[in-house]
Amino acid sequence: MRGITRAFAFGLAVAFLAGACGGAGTGGTAGTSSPQTTAAAKPKFEVQTFMYSIQVKGKLRIGTQEDNPPFSVKNPTSSKWEGFDTDIGREIAKAIFGTQGDPDSFIEWVPVTSATRIPSLTDNKADVIIKTFTINEDRKKQIDFSDVYFSTGQRILVKKTNDQIKEVVDLGGKTFCAQRGSTSEQNVTKAQPAAKALLLDSYPACLLALQQGQADAVSTDETILFGLVKQDPNTKIVGKYFSDEPYGVGIKKNANGDRNGFVDFLNTWLAAAIKDGTWAKLYEKHITPVSGDKKLAPKG
Amino acid sequence: MPGAIAVEFPDLFFGGLWVTVQLSVLGLLGALVLGTAVALTRVSPLAPLRWVGAAYVEFFRNTPLVVQLFFLFLGLPLLGLRFASDTFDNIFRAAFVGMALYHGSYVAEVVRGGLLGVDRGQIEAARSLGLSYAQTLREVQLPQTFRAVIPPLGNVAIALVKNTSLASTIGVTELLFGAEIVESRTFRAEEAFLTATLLYLGLTNPLGLLVNGLERRLLVVR
Amino acid sequence: MRPDTWAMFTDPAIWRFFGEGLTQTLELSVASVALSFVVGLAFALGRLSSRRWIRWPSTAYVEAIRALPVLLLIVYFDIKGSSLFRPLFGEDFELPRFWAGVLGLSLYTSAVLAEIIRAGILTLPRGQTEASRALGLSYPQTMRFVVLPQALRLMVPAMMGQLTTVIKDTSLVGTIGVFDLLRQGRTIYTQFFNPIEVLLIVASIYFVICFVLSQLSRRLELGRITPEAKVRMTELELRDQAA
């Protein structure tokens, strides 16, 4: 029965919300974390700033994804949003509305997918996007980003019993699996030209290939590998980062003063949250269970 | 200019084309052998043999080829069956078996139609002249069948060449796979896909002309 | 075999999940066939046109598209579909993957249907057209009131046969991230690690639908179609069956 229990705990929560019960997020009582922000009870903002207008409206609209563990998951049983990204959102809400009360009462959650992240900002359907959103030059042309709030990169997934492959260079002569058309495959080939690529159309398919011995390793962004390890505890993540994926909070560009002061506000808030240990707490709560490590700041 | 990109990535385009050609030729041979064998079961006097043949044909014709490929690629290893220990040999052979199985069901129907198309009177005449079942089959039925089935088999061959592209879904580095990789590296989708298109046309169009030509000639002879 | 891998199929949630995929598969099929029929009809008439500047491009379209793998067309629309339509719908336009799949399938199927419809028109006795024209009907009128109603009725079995091909072909859209029946099945087996069981179930569902449709189309065929048209249909079926 191991398969069933495991799958119900982790698996279908990712795929379809109805099937799973419990254990979908990383547990805990998200949203009631202790008041640790630097903001005063009711922060004061200049009238012309975006934060002031949000305070007046009484709602911050946060765009995130329903099935992106451990960053954001809408728990199918409690309908509560859980995960690292969602708690980052709650901290931002507290910095705007103050620390009294449930931050969720000031938040409107807007479900987005990878493809709808930018349009939901430009069409003004969400105020911030917090969804494993990699900062890059192309995107910066269309929207603004906060400073890096989470830094990750590409690593390698192998079977737990494998102790030959420890770093990307060890993939020489070995078969690794990656998604066709992704940059992951190119990053591996750049780092180890002698690695042989089995390219399939999804990472779960790669996981099956790994289990069956048709691939020696799977390689992609660590955050995706987290999900795979959760799915199959007989695997482990090894090696140092060999690519750089910096995540930022996405916001609409400031046109005609409709986002005055927002980027600066977010960066000030982020620096404070790192300084006072809030960030480290969130990391420990959501990421440590899957990564096994602890961090005090996005870089480091 | 379309096609120039092929020179920049010869491994992916021409290497991919070569895999497509190999898979097509081997797949077609496999489908012909399998399909002919199944067609013979379908006209055999033994009822159980006919049922097995019919079940094979209906199952493989009425399920998608990709489903069959995924089964060969991910399902069989769980039963301890692999076509090769090396991953890339394994997926190529899985794709080959998939091509043969799927198109074999179409070949079987074509060949059966050809066999049944032979006038029953001729067969009875041959038998009453003292020829055995096997002799009748070889000397009377098959030569006539052969002529009738060549054009439709040509059409199966064209379908097969196009369908080899599905092998990309299980990781076989054939032509479409090559084009997708080139696109993901260069973002030159138009060039990459137009080049693949031209290469596919280069394979299927001559085949189409050949089939049309044969069709006309064989019809005249009959 | 591993004993627990079938137990999950007693859970109704799993069947709801398959059901969602099946719905997508059927929606894709219907949308593709509907779109293909309209486009295919246009190209069939185009190929039969007496004007060279219509006939030649129509012939080129039909022949070129039929020579291509349908998966190539689907992948192309997945990658470039959005930018193709941006001049029409604005810079932010994102072509939903469902429609990328429909367009890829339809581009291909329309070429096949064009051939089926053309074959249907060509099997009608020429005398009918001539008589209608002699009675004073214009070319469009002749087509609309005399030729097409008969030709299309004649081609119903062949078009149903093509529908089974389209249903099988929809299984390719999973590779571009549309959650059709096969893709839903793949989601399940990547969670539960039971590809054998899931693929057998998925194959059975496709089988039931396609088998029933193909039997139906065979029944309809009897007595309806001339032997020459039958040969042409078989040929089309063999060449254009994709996945």
Brief characterization of the structure:
The complex is a heterotrimer of chains A (300), B (222) and C (243). Chain B is mainly α.
State the helical fraction of chain A: 25-40%
Largest sheet of chain B: none
Return the structural class of chain A.
alpha/beta
Portion in beta strands of chain A: 15-25%
Give an overview of the whole structure.
The complex is a heterotrimer of chains A (300), B (222) and C (243). By secondary structure, chain A is of the alpha/beta class. Chain A has ten helices and 13 strands. In chain A, 35% of the residues lie in helices and 21% in strands. In chain A, the strands form four sheets. Chain A has a five-stranded mixed beta sheet, sandwiched between helices. In chain A, a hairpin with a 3-residue loop joins strand 2 and strand 3. The longest helix of chain A is centred in the N-terminal third of the chain and has 14 residues. The N terminus of chain A is likely disordered. In chain B, 50% of the residues are buried. Chain C is mostly helical and 243 residues long. Helices cover 79% and strands 0% of the residues of chain C. The chains are: A alpha/beta (300), B mainly alpha (222), C mainly alpha (243).
Labels describing this entry:
heterotrimer, A: 300 residues, alpha/beta, 5-stranded mixed sheet, 3-stranded parallel sheet, elongated, disordered N terminus, C: 243 residues, mainly alpha, 79% helix
Give the arrangement of secondary structure elements.
The complex is a heterotrimer of chains A (300), B (222) and C (243).
Chain A: H1 2-15, H2 50-57, E1 60-64, E2 67-68, E3 72-74, E4 81-82, H3 84-97, E5 107-111, H4 117-122, E6 128-129, H5 137-142, E7 143-152, E8 154-159, E9 175-179, H6 183-191, E10 196-200, H7 203-211, E11 217-221, H8 222-231, E12 235-238, E13 245-252, H9 262-275, H10 278-291
Parallel strand pairs in A: 1-5, 1-6, 9-10, 9-11
Antiparallel strand pairs in A: 2-3, 3-4, 7-13, 8-11, 8-12
Chain B: H1 4-8, H2 10-42, H3 47-61, H4 65-75, H5 87-117, H6 120-128, H7 133-163, H8 175-186, H9 189-221
Chain C: H1 12-48, H2 52-66, H3 70-89, H4 97-123, H5 126-134, H6 139-154, H7 156-169, H8 181-192, H9 195-221, H10 227-240
